[in-house]
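so ive been stuck on this for like two days lol. basically i have the seq below and the ligand is magnesium ion, smiles is in there too. i just want the complex predicted, nothing fancy, no docking runs or whatever. if the output looks off dont worry ill sanity check it later, just need somthing to start from for the group meeting slides
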Amino acid sequence: MDAVSVRNLTMKFDEFTAVRDVSFDVARGEFVTLLGPSGCGKTTLLNLISGFLQPTSGTIEIEGKNVIGVPPEQRNTAMCFQSYALFPHLTVADNLQFGLKQKKLPHAERKARLSDVASKIGLGPQLAKLPNQLSGGQQQRVALGRALVMRPNVILFDEPLSNLDAKLRESVRLEIRAIQREYKLAAIYVTHDQGEALAMSDRILIMKDGRIQQSGRPDRIYKAPESSFVADFIGGANILDATVIGQVGEKNWRLDTKMGELTAQSDTPPVAKELKICWRAEKAQFGSGDLNTVTADIAHRSFQGNYTDLFFTVDGALQRVQLGEEAGELSASITFHIRPEDIIFLEAIK
Ligand SMILES: Nc1ncnc2c1ncn2[C@@H]1O[C@H](COP(=O)(O)OP(=O)(O)OP(=O)(O)O)[C@@H](O)[C@H]1O
Ligand SMILES: [Mg+2]
């Protein structure tokens, strides 16, 4: 049985549809991320699962039980927010216990759970402090602890790390994942940070305009995006229009593009004669090759430490090549090639 099972979920606010016919499952112990741009419906979807909103149509099951109409506190879910939402006048200990008191758990049970969670998330020494006496990272830990102490089946995160600086984000990220694994929680994690999604998730659901565009393991989504939206959103791929002009052998296709004639290798044929293709900046091979050699004028360069991004223009749009030390020797122009297997077919041009 899945921990969460969502079928054909739709949420309308008057005329506006924020979530459209969304279906997915989350297994026990699985970490699933909802990734998408601002306004695509991520928070709305979490609020539907936690019970703070009632859907217009569709079903939600938690641990096999239909929860439509069941109030949030009876759903066995816990939510962890970006804004922490801690009570400023309560100590860390009382913030952590708040939900347990509301549930009227006996004192001994509350104490046991509190000390277990406080030691897991390293907040033992902070228990007597007020939230404004804690750093941002510590406050985020209290918010996480407050969710964990409820021992939910499902934990829901709404951009929990966006108030933290980059370094802290990375360490709290690892901590969240370790705790989620240890408690074998089903987690649904909302972010618009693609790096966070790739690093943390067992599976990513990419959303746009209230719909799931593509779902899969992080490496599959990165290697095999199915649309230009996904290719661009994850990893900022170079995207080009292409016309298929011929097939060579079983798996190679000749393409006419604004970057010249290219050969792409694919196990599946292109979906149309006119379609979009993409290639990743880091797949550019320095110097010329047997196929797909491109020479371009460098428009900008951007040193990134262990690599350099070089930009050039094709038909008015910037394309990006990522090179290592070789980039240092280039000034006016760049010659590189792309292996046919590194060119990916996307959707048809309508
Ligand atoms: N209570 C509401 N009434 C009307 N429209 C709403 C309501 N809540 C959300 N919306 C609209 O639904 C859409 C999705 O909102 P939602 O908060 O789910 O987006 P999001 O993906 O979480 O975005 P962000 O990354 O900015 O948090 C937005 O266009 C928003 O304006
Ligand atoms: Mg949101």
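The chain has two domains: 4-223, 239-348. The longest helix spans residues 166-182.
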